[in-house]
Amino acid sequence: MSAKPARVSAASGLMALLIVLAVLILGYSAYLIETEKALDFQADMLEPSPFIFRPLVVMQLISAGGFLGTVVAVTLKVVHSIFAVAIVFTISTIVFGRFGHAKAAIQSTMESKSDIRKQEFECRITGSEMLVSVPPNMNHRTGEPIPGINDNNPYNQRFFRIDAKPLKLARQPESAIEKLQIAILEMLTAHADVPASIGNHHADATLMEHSKDISRKVKAVMARMGRKDDLAGLVGLAHDLDKLLAYRKKGDSWIKNGKATHHNTYSAYIVQHLQAFNELPEDDQNVLVLVLRYYHHPDQLPLNAGERVEHLIQALREADGWGIRSERTNAIAAAKDNPTTTSILSDGLSQFFADADINRYKGGSKADGWTVNAVEFVIVPASTILEGLHKFLPAELTRQLQLGVDTRIFGHPAIEIITDTLRDMGLLMEEYKDMKTTTGLFDVKVGMMRFSACFLLDKMSLVKLLPTTVPKWGMSEYGLRVRKPTSSNPVDDEPED
Q1: Torsion angle of the four alpha carbons 361, 362, 365, 367, in this order, in degrees rounded to the nearest 10
Q2: Within 13 Å and on the Cβ side, how many CA atoms surround 197?
Q3: I need a surface site. Which of 42, 169, 324, 446 has the fewest CB within 10 A?
């Protein structure tokens, strides 16, 4: 049988430590007395010092001298030494701990950056070469000959630069199409924060999310069409790849890169420069280039492009529209689910109305809304709110609500949440005389002009909200008339004058 390992409890360990200290203190005290150094040691411990705490009773015992005074003096020295060591150890642990965390953070950052693979693609455009010829010469000081130079590429031309980040794969790609998909995904992954659009066209989606989603949807559309094409997922993944060149970050926002080639035309060129592209069969290469080059402009597609190209473009355009609608719906749902949206939107609407140029009282070129003294409402077109509200909301909520995009379309996805917020604020009028709206909107007439999809806002509630602003609005120079509730089916509406 093997012996069980001995276990030492905390209490027994502390007792052993105290015994050792007592033996050391008593032994050192006896040594000081024997060598006649006890009085000097006692005098040192009685000298004033800001670093030694000495209660009065301790001072009296040391002053009394003898063996007890020496023991007390040695004990005081040992206790303060232990305390000093503890302070130094604590400070060292904190300092080196932070240094270690900082070093680890730096190391993590360096490792993250080291994952990025730098990619530069050289420009080779037929007819763009320039020949620079320098004839042989002679050094006028030494007389040594200097050889001439013939350089047909005097500039280090670079067409574009897009970094890539390697992916962790469950298996290695087998076909040329899979290799090209991985190459594209690596570029999208290295730029995971690039938005799918700058103008809220894709709501809150990133380019990587949008590209993956469209890749799946193109395959679904092709399947519904009864067609199978190995390039279906690839064209969806690469269709907006040129946005990596078209957008750049400025501060916390994304802006269009004025130096980059215009979006919608260069995804094909980017894909062509990837090594895996050269492994595709020639027919696949031609089809992929034509689809990526012309899917935004199908009317410019060459007549002899072929049915395969036309079907892929049709599927890509349908999937892109389907994807955008899905992204917008998801963004609105995310805004609704956020418990802070209502309060943020209420504050933003209050600021919007405070800033609005109602009746052109600020002298603007067009009015943001109208009212007259004889009516209890203020007319504000829904499109005016959709176009101006973004100035008073956080960027994330602005993207989710897609403000500034398709503002003249009745079915804008943000109208419902804006309507609900106006209702909660007590500003929305849903009944006027014998008319009641189910959409929260009315069609009105201002002078001779007809306006569809307008909010009627309760003027007295606005006075309570903006007591110093509403009186400044004055009266509209035009007559106002509420014609009818806005129909939920805009096809039934009469055309505007």
Answers
A1: -40
A2: 19
A3: 169
Beta-bridge partners for 443: 484
DSSP per-residue string spanning 52-76: ----HHHHHHHHH-HHHHHHHHHHH
Distance (Å, whole) CA 174 – CA 230: 14
Spatial distance between the Cα atoms of 384 and 353, rounded to a whole number of angstroms: 11
CB 372 within 8 A of CB 476: yes
Q: What is the dihedral of CA 178, 180, 182, 187, to 10 degrees?
A: -170
Task: Give the contacts of 114 (CB within 8 A, at least 6 positions apart).
Answer: none
Q: If you ran DSSP here, which 8-state letter would residue 342 be given?
A: H
Contact 434, 236 (CB under 8 A): no
* Cβ–Cβ under 8 Å, residues 119 and 163: yes
Give residue-wise pLDDT tens across range 51-85: 677 677 777 777 777 788 788 878 878 887 887 78
Per residue in 340-353, pLDDT tens?
988 999 999 999 99
CA dist 419 and 424 (Å) reads 9
Phi first, then psi: give them for residue 466, nearest 5 degrees. -130, 70
CA dist 376 → 152, 367, 370, 458, 460 (Å): 78, 18, 11, 6, 7
Query: Are 69 and 61 contacting, i.e. CB atoms less than 8 angstroms apart?
Result: yes
User: SS3 for 191?
Assistant: coil
Distances (CA, A) of 57 to 48, 64, 266: 16, 11, 89
Residue ranges in the chain whose pLDDT is less than 70? 1-10, 48-51, 54, 97-114, 122-132, 151-159, 199-204, 258-265, 323, 327, 404-410, 489-497
Report the run of H or E that residue 285 belongs to, with start and end. Answer: helix 282-294
Distances (CA, A) of 226 to 222, 263, 308: 6, 31, 13
> Residue 29, SS3?
helix
Q: How many residues does the chain have?
A: 497
Read off the tokens for 420: 């609900």
Pairing of strands 158-161, 120-122: antiparallel
Q: Where do the domains of the chain lie? A: 19-100, 132-161, 176-335, 339-492
Strand, helix or coil for residue 457:
strand
Question: Distance between CA atoms of 45 and 69, rounded to whole angstroms?
Answer: 11
